[in-house]
Amino acid sequence: MRVTLFTISHLQTELQRLRNENSSLNEEVSLCRTQCSELERKLEACCVTPTECVASVAPTDDNHVIDAGIKNAEVEELLSQVQLLEQRLGQSESLRNSERSASIAELDAINSSMLESKLRAEEAERTTSELRASLEKKSDEITQQALEIVTLQKDLAQLRHTHQTTVDQLSQSCTAVQTLEFQMAELKLKHESEIETQMAKMQDLSHSLSSMQTERDLLRTQCDELACQITQHLATIESAEAKLTESRQQLELELEQTRSQLSVSKKEADSLMERLIKSEDQVTTLRDELGRQVNEVECLNKAIFELGRENQSLQIMRERVTSRQWTKDNDAPACASCNREFSISNRRHHCRNCGGVFCHPCSSNRASTAASKDPVRVCNHCYSELTR
């Protein structure tokens, strides 16, 4: 359409130029005719012919002869100018006629080209209207698909919120477990300083441990439920991904059909391709989010496994607390490890972990225990277990 308008404008400009040139040639011919008429009048004013001029001046004297010669020369010069003007006039007439013929032929060609351009413009306008209607239909379909994608994105945001709530609950559970571990450490420290009182409170500690196990079982049940919910969310995400894949395939099919129909309108087809690429980017984003959800599920499983290990450690600690007692000095005449008898030079040393009495070489190690984060004296056997 733009090319047709440009051609019509160019032809109109060329036609105006030819008209201006024709007008200039007409003015030049008129000027030559005026000059020719002026010279003819001057020639008639002097004399009819050079012979008559000579005859008219024959009876006079020499001065008159000289004047007559000068006039004769002027007449001949005027005649030569008249001939020159006539030649120029003839050339101008011939040039004007040839240019007029060329202008007429070119004008006919321009009119024919303008008519053909007008027909092509009308045909292009009809084609453009049809293409515009088709594009509007495709645009409505793509808008509907975009709304579906927005709905899926909202569902994904809801899933993210639910997952974050799950993570927060798990964090609170871990905090509760840490709090319980700290309480057990305090109880064990009191047991080392007040052995008699601690034995009386052993039943309370067992009850607390049972409560912790009950709470741990409850947490494990909650974790299982959360894992089930996450599995359901993953299934929902996979369904959404399948829908997006189907939408992408549908868009690709429609894009191929649009390419075959809109070969002239490549710009609109490129726009559809850009929208398809955006949809694929959104699908990629959803896949990445799915991978992240899977990783988080794995982290939850690892956390559950760690809770199980901590529970086993707590049970082992409970068994040790119930089975181990602080050995009195009078009840230990020799080292519990090497059986070396105690004396003034070989003094008794209690292990802060198992409560046994050992000599200095057998209890010279220091390690952090559950009751004390600072390193305390422990026997070789307890040191091996604590540093394992």
From TrEMBL:
Record InterPro entries: Znf_FYVE, Znf_FYVE-rel, Znf_FYVE_PHD, Znf_RING/FYVE/PHD
Coiled-coil regions in this chain? Answer: 8-42, 223-289
Which keywords does the record carry?
A: Coiled coil, Metal-binding, Zinc, Zinc-finger
Q: Which Pfam families match?
A: FYVE (PF01363)
Keyword Phosphoprotein annotated: no
What's an example of a GO molecular-function annotation for this chain? zinc ion binding
| Name listed for the protein in its UniProt record | Early endosome antigen 1
Q: Which organism is it from?
A: Clonorchis sinensis (Chinese liver fluke)
Q: What is the lineage of its organism?
A: Eukaryota, Metazoa, Spiralia, Lophotrochozoa, Platyhelminthes
